[in-house]
Amino acid sequence: MKKIGSFRLTLLIAILLFASSFYYLPFYVSKPGMAKELEPIIEVEGGFEEEGSFMLTTIRMGRANIYSYLLAHLSDYQEIHPVEEIRGENETDEEYTMRQLHMMDSSKTSAIEVAYKKAGYPIDYDYNGVYVLQVVPGMPAEGKLTPGDRIVEIDGQRFNSSAEFIEYVGEKQAGDEVTLTVEKKEKESKVILGIKQFDELSERVGIGISLVDDKEIKVSPKVDVETDEIGGPSAGLMFSLEIYNQLIETDLTKGYEIAGTGTISPDGTVGRIGGIEKKVVAADKAGAEFFLAPNEKGAEDSNYQAAVRTAEDIDTRMKIIPIDTFEDAVHYLENLTPKTG
After folding, report:
1. Catalytic residue among 108, 215, 254, 279
2. Is residue 27 part of a domain?
3. Strand, coil or helix: 199
4. 186 Cβ partners below 8 Å, 6+ apart?
5. Which residues lie below 8 Å from residue 24, measured CB to CB, with a gap of 6+?
6. How confident is the model at residue 23, as a pLDDT?
């Protein structure tokens, strides 16, 4: 009888432990992800090969259960984030993921533009509208638009950039209305929204969305960038370097394993990203020899400074390089001594 009772107790504890693993706390946990070679996922038609590798670096991010929450407290380079720090107000996990994927798409487009311009190739765009990334609670768009919606027209007009869209709406007065042509799951519909002041302390008006351009870049030779489920804009710099390296005959890798991170703007500016410490750890584990980090014009709290501190903490031989622009990265790599042996 004692054995039966003991078995039942063990079984009950096992069931409770299993069930609790599916109970999510109001936190996210982030940890070092991977350093992924870019040559297998980026292909320029007729592009040149390279001896070394450019690598993007990632962070693993997931909702915390009891076990991951406790483990994060006990582990180096794991961080706990309140839900509101990661997701927008009232934003679902699905909407957050969609926003990250759209930001990745925008990053790829900017990277292609920067690389092809540097290599001297012409660029053209097909502009399809704007994607809704987030909806501001309490504003007119709430309940009528959702993240992932594509706005193709406003008041019957098409625009060539999200900046033009924002300027058009910003010239309206509170109480005015606009008619949007919205594409949801490949079906178009008309949505009428009022214009509202964002808050009492601001004269700025709008419909209450954050957005990103939905545009298709047209280049020759063609380039294909397969990022699967990787989200966010932080791989922009490394995308641009890999694409550019395939467009030119000189191999910028010089035979080295080169990791890095940083957003990329169409003008080549490299921007700050979050969680760079975890990306340094991921790059070191992957055997990277150089790590390119956003320098933010020498700011004391820059990504570069944080990367240097992390490199010292984990005692890596990987060299951390400060980068402000795409040109900075190219210049540094052009002057590297080729790897031997």
Report:
1. 279
2. no
3. coil
4. none
5. 63, 64, 65
6. 64
The residue among 216, 231, 247 that closes a domain is 216
Which residues span the domain enclosing 82?
34-86+111-121+220-334
Domain boundary among 196, 216, 236: 216
Q: What are the tokens at 240?
A: 């641009």
Q: Work out the average pLDDT over 134-162.
A: 88
pLDDT score of 116 more than 70:
yes
> Total domain count for the chain?
2
State how far the Cα of 29 lies from the Cα of 92, in Å rounded to an integer.
17
Report the mean per-residue pLDDT for the chain: 88
| Co-location of 233 and 117 in the same domain | yes
d(CA 28, CA 80): 6
Place of tokens 């509101």: 84
Helix (H) or strand (E) holding 190: strand 187-194
Give catalytic status of residue 279 as yes or no: yes
pLDDT tens digits, residue range 72-109? 888 889 888 888 777 766 667 777 777 777 778 888 99
- Nearest 5°: the CA angle 296, 232, 193 is 105
- HSE of 62, CA atoms in CB hemisphere, 13 A: 15
Cβ-contact 200, 69 below 8 angstroms: no
- Strand pairing partners for 216? 126
Residue 297 annotated among the catalytic residues of the structure: no
In a domain, 4, yes or no: no
| Residue 33 near residue 278 (C-beta atoms within 8 A) | yes
Candidates 162, 234, 240, 302; catalytic one: 234
More confident of the two residues 27 and 257? 257
Number of residues that make up the chain: 341
